[in-house]
Amino acid sequence: MIIAGEASGDLHGASLISELKKLDKDLEICGIGGDKMEAAGMKIIYHINRMAFLGFAEVIKHLPFIKRVQRDLISAVKEKGIGSVVLIDYPGFNLSIAKKLKPLRIKIIYYISPQIWAWGAGRIKKIKKLISKMLVVFPFEEELYKNAGVDVEFVGHPLIERINGYNFLSKEELYKKFNLQDGKEILLILPGSRSHEVEKIFPESIRAAEKLAGEFNLQVVAACSPNIEEKIFYGLTESRNFKVIKNHTYDLLKHAKIGIVKSGTSTLEAGLFLLPMVIVYKTSYLTYLIGRSLVRVDSIGMANIIAGENVAPELIQNEASRDSIYKECRRILSDAYLYNSIKNKLTVIKEKLVSGGASLRAAKIIYAILNEV
To answer: Is 214 exposed, middle or buried (CB count within 10 Å of its CB: 0-12, 13-18, 19+)?
Structure first.
């Protein structure tokens, strides 16, 4: 069984399943995932579209559903005689289900660690009790877990292999395919992979983006996650001076001039494309208050955390307003030296994450665990 609860987990899970199937084509896999994991050969018990809740307040509201999902997963493990479960990121749900799986005496492997170094340091004790093997994608995580006595291995980050293997459209092809305006660079908005993230982040972002577009001769494009509908964007603003493009985020990242990017995996992706960006984060007030009391790092953007400094400006909660987003983007676009300095500083991210092959390394480790006597 593999459990991934969001769009980034679906991507990484699909690559992992593909590599596992190469090692053993008869391997049967079921669990929670999205279209990509299903296409790679996993039988979906629950689709990630139904798991798209984030934050403390949202989780409380969905507790009855969460409990039902967990019961169904436990039943599937028992009925199918599943011997191993791979958890991909999604820590709130996955650590909870791990606790329920542990008494069944199955092997529990965690691929892509919860960000315990950012918040929830107490979770490392829970992880040590529950998890058979931790596979981490950032080098500093390996030392952290080793010091806590957790069986851990660094495999590299699967984003590297995904980008390396991506079949990019040229700038001309991208512009032609989506009828973009020649002579205008792209201001890219990446507002998240869940509908409620888009609802929180897109309205202020588009208002800032429109102002910037007029001032710097840009065109605004919103990248739409595969698991949400394009129409959500148009319901959040009266403006129609932007395009929504689905399933071409990497092409957009490669050819954009600047990004307004929701904190999370997207900032890491933007950083790997050396895209100057402003990082934004906005959630419910209750979730924000609880999160603020727990966070232990100075930066929220993964690109900044890996780079070791705030290369990209971060605007959190009330700071993520139209005026602040406009001001920070304008500062970057108005200063060629600053713009190029940001691109240069972002190069360190790829250097720290190891070359491709993370999914294969993870699959080999997992397959060996599956076959342990």
So the answer is: exposed
